[in-house]
Amino acid sequence: MSEQQKTTNSIGGKIKNYFFTGVIVAAPVAITIYMSYHLVIWINDVTSKLIPQKWTIGNFVPYAVPGLGLLLLLVMLFLIGMLTTGYVGRFFVSLWEKIIRRMPIVSSIYSLVKQIFETFLSQKNRSFSEVVLVEYPRKGLWTIAFVSKKDTGGEVEEKTKNKKISIYVPTTPNPTSGFLIFVDENDVIKLDMSVEEGIKYVISCGIVTPEINKEKRKK
Questions:
Q1: Average of pLDDT values for 71-91?
Q2: Mean pLDDT of 24-49
Q3: What is the CATH number of the domain that holds 164?
Q4: Residue 179 has pLDDT above 70, yes or no
Q5: Model pLDDT, residue 2
Q6: Domain containing residue 139
Q7: Residues of the chain above pLDDT 90, percent
Q8: Which of 16, 91, 143, 206 is the most buried (most CB within 10 A)?
Q9: Torsion 119-125-131-137 (CA) sign
C-alpha cells in the first residue's frame, strides 16, 4: 500500500471517528431536550384544561403566559402530597391500591411504576451505605450488591458464630426486587461508585457504566 493510500485511509478513519463521536455526544442532548420540551408542552396543555375558561390568564392579560399549566401541576402535586400524609389521605390511598391490586394487568403496571419512582424519589436508597461486588449466585460470577447493614448482630450472627454484613442483591432492570444475603465482610469487594450510580448501573442492565471516582480513590 502506497503512502498516499495510507494517508487517505487515515484521514477517512479520522473523519468517520469524528462523525460518530459527534453523533454520540449530540444525540443524547438533542433527544433529551426534544423529549423534555414536548413533555412540558403536553403537561401544560393537559393541566390548563383543568382551569375553567373564565378563570384563565388570557382573560386578565392580553398575552399568553407559558408554563401556567406546569405551575398548576406542581401546586396540585404539593397539595396531594400534603393531604396523603394525613390519616384520611392514607386511608384513600390504601383503598385505591386495594382496588388496583384486583386488576390483573393494571396492577402489574402500577406496581412497577410505583417501585421505580420510590427508588429514585424516596429516601430508601439512603439506607444503603456502600456498593460492593459479591460472588453470586456461585463462585466465579460477580454481581452488584448494596450494603444495608455492616453489623447484623442478633440471631443471625449468633447462629453463624461469625460477624456478618447484610447486603442486598438487586434484580435487573428492576432494583426494587432482590435478595437479602448475609456474608463475611472479606467476601465482598468495595466499589467507589455511589449508591445512586449503582442503582443506575443495575437499571440499565450494565449499559450505563459509572466513571471511576479518582478523587475518592486518592482518599
A1: 74
A2: 74
A3: 2.30.30
A4: yes
A5: 60
A6: 127-218
A7: 10
A8: 143
A9: negative
Residue 165: pLDDT over 80: yes
In order, the DSSP letters of the chain are --HHHHHHHHHHHHHHHHHHHHHHHHHHHHHHHHHHHHHHHHHHHHHHTTS-GGGSGGGTSSS--TTHHHHHHHHHHHHHHHHHTSHHHHHHHHHHHHHHHTSHHHHHHHHHHHHHHHHHHSSGGGG--EEEEEE-SSTT-EEEEEEEES---HHHHHHHTS--EEEEEE-SS-TTSEEEEEE-GGGEEE-SS-HHHHHHHHHTTT-SPPPP-HHHHH-
Length of the chain: 219
Question: Considering the chain, what percentage of its residues have pLDDT values greater than 70?
Answer: 73
**Is 188 part of any domain?**
yes
Residue 58 covered by a domain? no
* Pairing outcome for strands 178-183 and 188-190: unpaired
Please check whether residue 155 lies inside any domain of the structure: yes
Using alpha carbons, select from 107, 88, 86, 89 the residue that is nearest to residue 97: 107
